[in-house]
Design goal:
heterodimer; A: 406 residues; Cytochrome-c3 Hydrogenase, chain B; three-stranded antiparallel β-sheet; globular; B: 169 residues; alpha/beta; Beta Polymerase, domain 2; five-stranded mixed β-sheet; 3 helices
Chain lengths: 406, 169
């Protein structure tokens, strides 16, 4: 047996050197204190460390420290062909992998110039699975948010409903969270036989559950007391900070890239864009952000039903339909720079590509992470709040560290 | 509004000498801007009521390699009310290890640029002048080197841990 080698040299200042605090203890004024939240604290949604400067119960300044989940996505992508990057893309926002895959595949297809050749059935399946995943992501967002502010039951109920989505997507592609289902130019496989019926059943099942969620959580008096008028994000600040997705819509702007950019089959589908109205507090507070998420679940259900109608009607399953038929064997776009964006559950997810035109591997891939841009506003909107409200604000932004750290 | 119209409005306002050219490309045209006029161009793009690019979507950098010896910085801008878009490209020399390349920060125009510029500093070692808080964001503070540069070499040990780079050739 070989000698076991100890690979880590422990030194006391290692941590201080690798991620030093922004504030120094000797500079504090009387009454001020530095509190460290995370990176293993459950309310920070993953491995986020918040360095909080407090004065009694009041937060004076928040400095987020991240990078604990950095997995070198962009460096890896410089060494891999486009189709092999898709599993990495799954692992960015692991709560909504289908949406990320859809946007990534769409970008590469646009670069190849084959986006018009994709069969309609393929596109409808993509939108169907992406919207299912959007519901699952919003369920996690609202569920963990309820835990953050002290209610455990809704989380269990939402996990139960999310389990249906996970199982359905497992049936589709074999994986529960990280799918690699949407390929460039097609899909891994057609929907399994009987999926449409099962999915319809699920929609019928979920509608009353959503109603229940609204009654149990969103319209709950305790929930409203806890979240209304907390963490108000004014619209001009939101736009200046590049906030997108439900956080931007909660501030009152009807801006959804599915409508604005009209990508995929979204122009053929009928759905509304819910916005925050400040019903119980001020427009753009924590309550509005959660309210918008729940309403978006209803809209996603609407989209799913329309997709199912199409998949059972005009674009019915046929024996000779091959979702991989036009998936290119060799993915080599012309030399260009291209930026694609789309609406993921967290906001505007963008991918930047630079292809050289002579090589199957991109020269550069950059992921524009909505969570990172949304988190950047946290120090701004949490000045002067209570420490407990800081957790409420952070949860309402709905960050996934996999996407921030990439 | 098309790319050409945007360019005409912009050059009429601030003068053609700020824009160094354009790159029509295949899909997304890019407007090349001199590094020293970047902030002026950006504040004009935001404040001009005909252009009004209020949404900074993404900033990213690309290393063109040691033979060309430049970095490209790309700014993807969108206008929410007008629904038009623009890509700005700034090319700067790579500089040396002693003096890192630098470009003006646009945090004063769009605050969303703050963390994205920090990330570019972290990954490429490009300094942003007048940035409010230029620290590393994803990597540890005492990491050596800038990983997304094409000539990046991983350090051998980090705090006594062997750094293995599974994707090096």
């Amino acid at each position: 047996m070989s000698q076991r080698v100890i690979e880590f040299i422990y030194k006391e200042e290692n941590l201080r050197l690798s991620e030093p605090n922004f504030f120094r203890a000797e500079d504090l004024k009387p009454g001020e204190m530095i509190i460290n939240l995370g990176p293993q604290h459950p309310s920070t949604h993953g491995v986020l460390r918040l360095e909080v400067l407090t004065d009694g119960e009041t937060v004076k300044e928040v400095i987020p420290h991240m990078g604990y989940l950095h997995r070198c996505f962009e460096k890896h992508a410089e060494k891999l062909p486009y189709n092999q990057i898709i599993p990495f893309v799954d692992r960015l926002d692991y709560m909504a992998a289908m949406n990320s895959e859809h946007i990534f595949a769409m970008g590469v297809e646009k670069m190849l110039g084959i986006e018009d050749k994709i069969p309609k059935r393929t596109e409808y399946i993509r939108v169907l699975v992406a919207e299912l995943n959007r519901i699952a992501s919003h369920f996690i967002a609202v569920g963990t948010y309820a835990i953050d502010i002290g209610a455990v039951t809704p989380f269990l109920w939402l996990m139960r409903d999310r389990e249906h989505i996970n199982r359905m997507l497992e049936w589709v592609c074999g994986a529960r969270m990280l799918y690699n289902y949407i390929w460039i130019g097609g899909l891994f496989y057609d929907l399994p036989v009987g999926f449409e019926e099962r999915c319809r059943e699920f929609v019928t099942y979920l509608r009353p559950k959503l109603k229940e969620l609204q009654q149990l959580v969103i319209n709950n008096k305790i929930f409203i007391e806890r979240t209304a008028n907390v963490g108000i994000l004014p619209l001009n600040l939101a736009i200046n900070y590049g906030i997108s997705g439900p956080c931007l819509r909660a501030s009152g702007l009807r801006y959804d890239l599915r409508r604005v950019d009209q990508y995929s089959v979204y122009p053929e589908l009928d759905f509304d864009i819910p916005v925050g109205e400040g019903q119980v507090g001020t427009k753009g507070d924590c309550w509005d952000r959660n309210y918008v998420r729940v309403l978006e679940c209803y809209e996603s259900l609407k989209i799913i039903e329309q997709c199912l109608d199409q998949l059972c009607g005009n674009h019915k399953r046929t024996r000779d339909f091959d979702p991989q038929a036009i998936a290119p064997k060799k993915i080599r776009p012309k030399a260009m720079d291209f930026y694609i964006r789309g609406e993921s559950p967290k906001g505007e997810l963008g991918f930047f590509f630079r292809s050289t035109g002579t090589y199957d591997i991109p020269a550069r891939v950059h992921g524009r992470s909505p969570c990172m841009m949304n988190l950047a506003v946290l120090p701004e909107i949490s000045r002067g709040v209570m420490v407990a409200d800081l957790i409420a604000i952070l949860g309402s932004i709905d960050v996934v560290m996999g996407e921030i750290d990439r | 509004m098309t790319f050409d119209q945007i360019r005409i409005i912009l050059t009429e306002k601030i003068g053609a000498e700020f824009v160094s050219g354009e790159d029509k490309g295949e899909l997304q045209p890019q407007l090349n801007v001199h590094a020293d006029s970047l902030r002026k161009v950006c504040s004009e793009l935001l404040s001009n009521s005909d252009l009004y690019f209020d949404f900074l979507s993404s900033i990213t950098a690309v290393d063109n390699g040691t033979s060309v010896n430049t970095f490209d910085l790309l700014y993807h801008l969108y206008s929410i009310p007008y629904n038009h878009s623009l890509v700005l490209k700034v090319t700067i020399p790579r500089g040396t290890d002693e003096s890192l390349p630098s470009v003006d920060s646009i945090c004063s125009v769009w605050q969303g640029a703050n963390w994205q510029e920090r990330e570019i500093y972290d990954m490429f070692g490009i300094l942003f002048n007048d940035h409010p808080d230029l620290r590393r964001i994803l990597l540890p503070e005492d990491w050596i080197g800038f990983p997304l540069r094409k000539d990046y070499q991983t350090q051998e040990f980090y705090h006594g841990i062997k750094v293995e780079n599974p994707i090096s050739n």
